[in-house]
């Protein structure tokens, strides 16, 4: 008896396994996961300062997930992984830049606020070193660069050195005195003997937490030293008065007292 032969259905040829392409895909996916974890960790730190960036990062994550879902073929998956990695790297760099900028702005504001608080405190409670640091902070707040506290033994009369916003060299001597102890002419003479010749000051300033005697004020007007007493120091600190280097009448001709007034 003859048995009829059944026709064999043509099977669909299987797709060949490509080990190299699979390895590359898994490697890219691993890199993307590492970067994603890093970005998530940074996002928690940034969220407290820049809430808007949380929305940007979430939007980027959703976009990456959609691209991943649409990656059906091997070549498209590779391209999507590369694009996702680049996008995550760019987002991370942007977040880090914004975080660093926010920290810098926070430090600058903190320095300005600290300068205001310190100088407005009772001067009797500040040590001479703290008083010098407070004056240096005020200089930084008002745009000075290269601010340096140099007070101490052998300072030759200079406690704070700075460069004003217009490029002039500012030399400041600080006198943290009690209210009943005024700065006398001898203090001004010692400072006047070094501020211009030794330190090369374009603007010489003597700041005190008390006041100046009349002879001291006369000497300062004669040789061109800007005097800042307690009242004017508070105005400077609170923004009610200009910085000492902002009001300088023209220099005298050397034969007569210059017309520089007390600041």
Index terms:
single chain, 263 residues, alpha/beta, Trna Endonuclease, Chain: A, domain 1, 2 domains, five-stranded mixed sheet, 7 helices, rod-shaped, transmembrane helix, Restrct_endonuc-II-like
Describe this structure in words.
The chain is α/β, with parallel strands linked by helices and about 260 residues long. It folds into 2 domains: about 20-110, no CATH class; about 125-245, 3-Layer(aba) Sandwich (Trna Endonuclease, Chain: A, domain 1), CATH 3.40.1350. Helices cover about 50% and strands about 10% of the residues. The chain has helices spanning about 20-45, 50-70, 75-120, 130-140, 185-190, 215-225, 230-240; strands at about 145-150, 160-165, 170-175, 205-210, 225-230. Strand 3 (about 170-175), helix 5 (about 185-190) and strand 4 (about 205-210) form a beta-alpha-beta unit. The longest helix is centred in the middle third of the chain and has 47 residues, at about 75-120.
The largest sheet is:
5 strands, mixed
State which percent range the strand residues make up.
5-15%
Radius of gyration: 35 Å
The total count of helices amounts to: 7
Q: If classified by CATH, what would the architecture of the largest domain be?
A: 3-Layer(aba) Sandwich
CATH class category of the largest domain: Alpha Beta
- Uncertain runs are 248-262
CATH topology of the largest domain: Trna Endonuclease, Chain: A, domain 1
What is the overall shape? rod-shaped
Q: How far is the first residue's CA from the last residue's CA?
A: 128 Å
Task: Specify the helix fraction band.
Answer: 40-55%
Number of domains: 2
How would you classify the helix and strand content by structural class? alpha/beta
Mean pLDDT, all residues: 76
Instruction: State the total count of DSSP E strands.
Output: 5
Order of helices and strands: HHHHEEEHEHEH
* Strand order within the widest beta sheet: 1-2-3-4-5
Protein name: Restriction endonuclease
GO molecular function, one term: endonuclease activity
Keywords: Endonuclease, Hydrolase, Membrane, Nuclease, Transmembrane, Transmembrane helix
């Amino acid at each position: 008896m003859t048995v009829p032969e059944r026709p064999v259905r043509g099977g669909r040829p299987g797709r060949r396994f490509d080990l190299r392409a699979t390895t590359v895909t898994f490697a890219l996916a691993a890199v993307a996961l590492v970067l994603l974890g890093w970005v998530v960790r940074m996002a928690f730190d940034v969220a407290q300062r820049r809430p808007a960036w949380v929305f940007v990062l979430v939007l980027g994550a959703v976009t990456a997930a959609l691209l991943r879902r649409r990656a059906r073929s091997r070549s498209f998956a590779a391209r999507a992984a590369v694009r996702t990695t680049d996008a995550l790297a760019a987002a991370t760099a942007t977040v880090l830049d914004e975080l660093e900028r926010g920290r810098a702005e926070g430090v600058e504001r903190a320095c300005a606020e600290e300068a205001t608080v310190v100088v407005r405190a009772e001067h009797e409670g500040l040590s001479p070193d703290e008083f010098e640091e407070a004056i240096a902070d005020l200089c930084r707040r008002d745009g000075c660069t290269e601010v340096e506290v140099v007070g101490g033994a052998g300072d030759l009369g200079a406690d704070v050195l700075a460069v004003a916003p217009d490029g002039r060299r500012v030399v400041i001597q600080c006198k943290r005195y009690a209210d009943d102890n005024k700065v006398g002419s001898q203090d001004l003479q010692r400072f006047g003997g070094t501020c211009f010749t030794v330190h090369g000051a374009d603007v010489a300033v003597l700041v005190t937490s008390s006041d100046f005697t009349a002879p001291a004020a006369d000497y300062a007007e004669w040789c061109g030293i800007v005097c800042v007493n307690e009242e004017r120091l508070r105005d400077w600190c609170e923004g009610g008065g200009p910085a000492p280097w902002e009001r300088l009448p023209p220099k005298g001709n050397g034969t007569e007292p210059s017309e520089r007034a007390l600041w």
